Amino acid sequence: FYFRAQRTSSEQRLSAALPESVGPLERGLHPEPIVLPTMTEAIAKRIRSSPGNAELRSNYAVVLNWHKTYSEVDRSAIAEAERAAREQPNNMALQLTAAVVHSDDQNARRHFIDRALKINNTDPWARYGMARSDLDLNHPQSALAGAESLLQLHPDFVPAIVAKAQALEALGERAAASIFVNEAFRRIHTVPSLAREAIAVSRRLERHSEAVDRFQLALALRFDDTNLRRGLATMFEDMGRINDAMVQYEKIHKLDVFD
C-alpha cells in the first residue's frame, strides 16, 4: 500500500491513497506461459509437413550447423545437407551448402564443390570454394591461380580478394599480399572480411594509428563483433591507451556478459 502525507491545520497525518472500493479479484489458475519454438524447431516442423522440400531441408542444415543444436554423434547438419544435395543433384546451391557444412572433412567438401562446378563452372561462389579448398589443403599455388582467374571476371569479389591475399601470404610473398590488400581496401572499404585483412596488414607493418582507424571502420560495419573489439582493446593496451582499452572491454561485456 502507498500512503501520502496530508497536512491539516498544524498537524500531519498519513492517509491511505487507495480507492474507496475495490472490484472483485480474479480467481482460478494463473495463465500458463506460451513457449515459442526456436528457429530449428520451426523449420523441423515445416520439414515434417513437406519432407520432399530439398531446399527447405538444406536451410535446416545451415541453421543446425550455425547454432550447433545437434549432437556431434548423429551429425544431423551434415546428414540433412547431404540428403538435400542427393534429392536435387542438379541444384548447385544445395551442393555448395553441403560443402560448407563439411568443414571438418576436406575430401567430402571437395566432392560437393566438384559437383557444383560440374553444374556451373562459371559460378563465382563455386570457383571460390575450390580456391578455398586448395588453401585449406595447403596448395597455395593452385589457390592463387584459382583466385586470380576468378578476379579477372569479378574484380571486386571480396572472397576471392581475401583468398588471393592469403595464398600470397602462404607462399611467403608478404609484401605483395600487403600491397594487394591495401589497393583492394582503397576501392572496397565496406566489407568486414576485407577490413579484417587490412587490419592484419597494418598491424604487421606496425602502423598503429592506421590499424586503429581500420578497427573502428570494421566495428562500424559490425558493432557486435566481440573478437574485433578484443583485438582493438589489445591494440590500445600495446599503445598505452588503457582507458580506451577499458571502454572496449566494457562494450564487450555488454554485448556478451559471459565473454
**What order do the SSEs take from the amino end to the carboxyl end, as H and E?**
EEHHHHHHHHHHHHH
- How many distinct beta strands? 2
- Name the overall outline: flat
Q: Pairing-aware structural class of the strands and helices? A: mainly alpha
For the sheet with most strands, the description reads: 2 strands, antiparallel
Determine the fraction of residues in helical runs and give it as a percent range: 55-70%
Numbering strands along the chain, what is their spatial order in the largest sheet?
1-2
Number of helices: 13
Rg, alpha carbons: 28 Å
Instruction: Calculate the terminal CA-CA distance, rounded to whole Å.
Output: 42 Å
- Weakly predicted, low-confidence segments: none
Strand content: under 5%
Would you write up a description of this structure?
It is a single chain. Helix content is 65%, strand content 5%. It is mainly alpha-helical and 259 residues long. A two-stranded antiparallel sheet has the order 1-2.
What layout of secondary structure does this protein have?
Blueprint (H helix, E strand, L loop, with lengths): L2 E6 L2 E6 L22 H11 L4 H14 L8 H12 L4 H10 L4 H14 L4 H13 L3 H14 L4 H13 L3 H14 L4 H13 L3 H14 L4 H13 L3 H14 L4
Antiparallel strand pairs: 1-2
Helix pairs in contact: 1-2, 2-3, 2-4, 3-4, 4-5, 5-6, 6-7, 6-8, 7-8, 8-9, 9-10, 10-11, 11-12, 12-13
Keywords, separated by commas or semicolons:
259 residues, mainly alpha, two-stranded antiparallel ribbon, 2 strands, 65% helix, flat
